[in-house]
Write a structure and sequence with these properties.
Layout lengths: L3 E7 L4 H14 L3 E5 L22 E4 L12 E5 L6 E2 L8 E6 L8 H6 L2 E4 L8 H15 L15 H6 L17 H8 L1
Helix pairs in contact: 1-3
Length: 191
């Protein structure tokens, strides 16, 4: 997969939430994890961080938003349930991104939202646990960045032709439903 991503929380104070997020970020291949204005010790999330993510993933603790530094070209993506946020299923993830989630029982500060290049929301009726929200965002990123074959039209797993896409160009076999695929579909798969 091209690009990289990092994920962090602004104002987190529950070690179990950040430990859960670190472990999930490690599982999804995050390039770094971070906190901004955290109210806990990074070592207290060890009970939920069973993969020991901080031994494998760089960690940055920024005391404040003003002191947060991201790699050049990295876009900051806020995750917040607001009226004008982009719904996650309609969002194209930047190639290089740092996602920032709000603290437990609160929202991202207005100053943080202003600094974001994009603000997205998970389409739901109310906020979920910050670790769950982070997992949903990371799953959507991995799923939408073209690493996997497109979903089949019918229920079930990918066909042999679609599965081949995840390792290169699709196989257009004689008699397969993809034999006469429209040029736009074949062109998209070759990109």
């Amino acid at each position: 997969m091209r690009g990289y991503f990092g994920i962090g929380i602004h104002g987190v104070n529950k070690p179990f939430n950040i430990g859960n997020l670190y472990r999930t970020a490690h599982a999804f291949g995050a390039s770094f994890v971070y906190t901004v204005d955290a109210k806990y010790s990074k070592n207290k999330g060890h009970k939920t961080d069973t993969s020991k993510a901080l031994e494998h993933t760089p960690f940055y603790a920024f005391p404040s938003l003003d002191e947060m530094v991201l790699p050049q070209g990295c876009q900051l993506v806020g995750v917040e349930l607001t009226e004008d946020s982009i719904e996650l299923p309609s969002f194209r993830h930047p190639t290089n991104a740092a996602y920032i989630l709000g603290p437990e029982r609160s929202s991202l500060p207005h100053t943080t939202l202003e600094r974001c290049d994009h603000v997205i929301k998970i389409p739901m009726k109310f906020c979920v646990n910050v670790g769950v929200a982070g997992a949903l965002v990371m799953y959507d990123r991995v799923q939408s960045m073209g690493r996997f074959a497109p979903r089949p039209v019918r229920a079930g797993g990918p066909t042999e032709e679609l599965a081949a896409h995840s390792h290169g160009s699709p196989i257009f076999r004689k008699g397969s439903p993809f034999e006469e695929a429209p040029p736009s579909v074949a062109q998209k798969w070759d990109e």
